[in-house]
Amino acid sequence: MWLTTIVIIIIVINATAAIITVFRQPRDIAATWAWLLVLLLLPVIGFILYWFFGRKLATNKLNSLATQQRLGIDQMVASQQEAVTVSQESGAASPFAGAPELVRTLLQADGALITTMNRVRLLFNRQDFTKALFADLRTATHHIHIEAYTIEPDGVGKALVQLLTQKAEQGVRVRVIYDTFGSHLLNHAFWRPLVQAGGQVEPFLETRLGRANLRINFRNHRKITVIDGQVAYMGGFDIGSTSRKLAITRDTQLRLTGQAVASLQARFFMDWNTTAKIKKVHFQKAYFPDPADNGRTTMQIVAGGPEQKLEAIKLGDLRLLALAKRRIWVQSPFFVPDDSLLDALILAAHSGIDVRLMVPVHTNQPMMAKATEFYLNQLVKAGVKVYRYQAGFLHSKAIIVDSQYLMTGSPNLDLRSFKLNFEIAAFIYDRTLAEMVERQFKLDMQQTTLYTYTMVKNQSPMSRVGADLARLFAPIL
């Protein structure tokens, strides 16, 4: 009798603690139910998992991120919004890349300025990216700003620090932001030569525990490099690689010159001033030089993060998909969408649009891969062509619409990228670039197998149950 009473008391205490823990901070309903399920079914263990995965950022940090000065950008955003409105109301041919609805959505959701006369080089291979990046770093004369998720202490990572140290000794201002989870193999000794040479290195939103940050969520997944305010890189490639993970040789990276570089520079400034305890940076003309207007690409740089009231990148993706008349081709390492994105793709397929999704067979996150399987099954049943990439870990993030519009950058098509991580994406209005990514998609198809409805029906019951269970935890993966 007394044992039953003790068990009931423990269950009541655990349930009460679970409810208080989950509801003490606002979160969407799917994540709320997922965490309640974990905490109720896994006493003690569930709270340990919550400590690592479920805790939200402190309110003061979120407020700091949300209220950073926009370096004069807010006024420019308002002007562009007014210009788009006037263009639509007048019925004139839109000067805003032919997609005023998408442009306006991104202006409203993130203040993403539309920039023109950019020159963009696409890099699909890691060696090409590394070679181009180091060549540009060697030319730096004023500053180098790097924001990275993962920098590996391999030959490439060590060569990077050596080069940055040389530049700092030459008087170049070097600033690096890195994520302590993605770059967990680094230590203070790795950065010591650069710091001693005058470079500045900051872990993103470091906690009181320093580099031993136990929070798995709210990682800085952005990959940005700005050199002398003239050249910038963004995309999916990290710096270096490690033999302990699946090798990533295929991704999509952008090398930019033109007006868009200032947007990436402003983003770096905001992130630096949020995370740096001292030595904050302020607007100076040298950081925002007049661009060489010799390109022809129109684009918007969009940031996503948990401090946003609107999920800017997801809203942009949804509006981009709505533009489609003929085709939607998508690549993503993981595919764990919310209902709105899943429904948008299924609706497009039912409308007769050629919808294709490519994901890798092999990834470094088995749980995410299993959850992806559940959603792939839904797409296949709806008539979406799903391709499983066989030649390694496909890490490319891209949406191509009608061979005319392109989205690429750091975010995967999953809930983590839309809600939990800090991401950066480029929405590009350029037929030539869209067609180049489309051609690469076709080349990648040669390394894939088509995932068919017959394969779905032939899955074992155990495999289906595993995918269903993984899907239950999708909101918190």
UniProtKB/TrEMBL annotation:
Would the keyword Lipid biosynthesis be found if you checked this record's keyword annotation?
A: yes
Which SUPFAM superfamilies does the record cross-reference, listed alphabetically?
Phospholipase D/nuclease
Task: Give the top-level enzyme category.
Answer: transferase
* Annotated PLD phosphodiesterase domain residues: 216-243, 390-417
Q: Mention any Pfam family matching this sequence.
A: PLDc_2
Which controlled-vocabulary keywords does the entry list?
Cell membrane, Lipid biosynthesis, Lipid metabolism, Membrane, Phospholipid biosynthesis, Phospholipid metabolism, Repeat, Transferase, Transmembrane, Transmembrane helix
- What InterPro entries does its record include? Cardiolipin_synthase (IPR022924), CLS_N (IPR027379), PLD-like_dom (IPR025202), PLipase_D/transphosphatidylase (IPR001736)
Mind telling me what this protein is named?
Cardiolipin synthase
| Native source species | Lacticaseibacillus hegangensis
Q: Which gene encodes it?
A: cls
